[in-house]
Amino acid sequence: MRRAALPALLLLVAGWALTLWVAPWSDERVNDLFVYRTFAEPVLGGELPYRDIAFEYPPLAAPAIALPGVAGTGEETFRWAFALWTLGAAAAVVLLCGAVARAGGGDPRTVRRAMLAAALMPLVCGALLRTHFDLFPVALLLAGLLLLSRERPRAGLAVLGLGAMTKLFPIVAVPVALAWLLGRGRRRAALQGALACAAVVAVIGGAAVAAVPDGALDAVRYHLDRPVQIESSPALVLLGLDAAGAGEAKSVSSHRSDGLVHPAADAVTSLFLTALVALVTLLCVGAAGGRQVREPAGGRQVREAAGGRQVREAAAANRGARPLVIASLAACAGFAMFGKVLSPQFVIWVLPLGALAFAWRMHALAAAVALAALLTQVEFPSHYFDVVAREPLAIGLVALRNLALGAVVALSVRELQPRRQQDLLHGRRPALAVRLD
What we know:
- By secondary structure, the chain is an all-alpha fold.
- The chain has one domain.
- It has helices spanning 2-21, 33-44, 61-66, 75-103, 108-119, 121-125, 135-149, 153-164, 173-183, 187-211, 213-225, 233-243, 265-289, 299-304, 309-319, 322-338, 351-359, 363-379, 384-388, 392-415, 418-425, and strands at residues 228-229, 250-254, 257-261.
- It has a three-stranded antiparallel sheet, covered by helices on one side.
- Helix 13 packs antiparallel against helix 16 (322-338).
- The two termini are 18 Å apart.
- The model is unreliable at 290-317 and 431-437 (pLDDT under 50).
């Protein structure tokens, strides 16, 4: 893995340079750096989130946003510090993708493919990667899945709790992980892991509520009260209803975003929330179906008997973690697709799924992830204000991106079908798979 890491990291750094100096990847005319900088300055001066400063994110987002300000909170200084800070997070994501690929039964070639694919993140996303902090919860999500894959369920679920306390979306991986453990007959591990995750969330979230009850609850109300965001899937339905004459969708600018108000907004949002719950349930069933074959006794003999039946069984045991990874990352994609907010940076959550799908030769799924990311880069930021103005072509571009995310979810569910899981378990590839290397 070390030999494969160096070229992947060099590729990542080259891509990062593109996001700083080469158009269109360097386009950052719309970003969150000003918001982060104006938050970092008072926090580093001793003020507290929720109490002294309104803060819309979970508690652990505060250090992820504020720490680059140690180098300075001037506009250009903070821009460079945040770029280096997020580059470190991106490097962690690349290495974690390789580790997860290996934990899923991958050989050195598979690990290399995973890391190289992950290193292409700047090419498909552009400056979006370095102007938002989403790589940090993504890294925690991958770390939690890696620990689970390595038979450390309590630590893995605790890390998923840390991810949820940085940005909420990793929480949807928790029921998937618990279903995966239960499907393998590990009820005690599932219970202990659930308690570990709940303890992390309770301690961190509870500390924020106990310290500043009104401020912490205001952060929750902020998200409950915000309107449907213009780029989300529910927004596209509301625009369709408006076009059909079924109520007017009024544009509003609030909660630091652009949204829509419509008489049917609550009903549409509820339908999409129901769809998300149904998707997570379906993914839990798929993950539970990926039972692991236990590694045979005598680890040394297994390692020495190259090509023997025991080695194949041990490899199959490792591949049993793949349904966990695919289902968990697909749940995060569904969280973005079905939520009432779909900010462009949410596509970052899906990138590890594409890298691992490519490494594991799920090429249609990898292509769908790449398409969703590329369409987001075309739309944001160069055409974002056209979307706000509700220009038909710009809205159509967003609709195509959301359909690509829908394809990501659908193809992930397809990969979790029992027959395809048996192919994974025994190292077979579907008959129509194309070998690319």
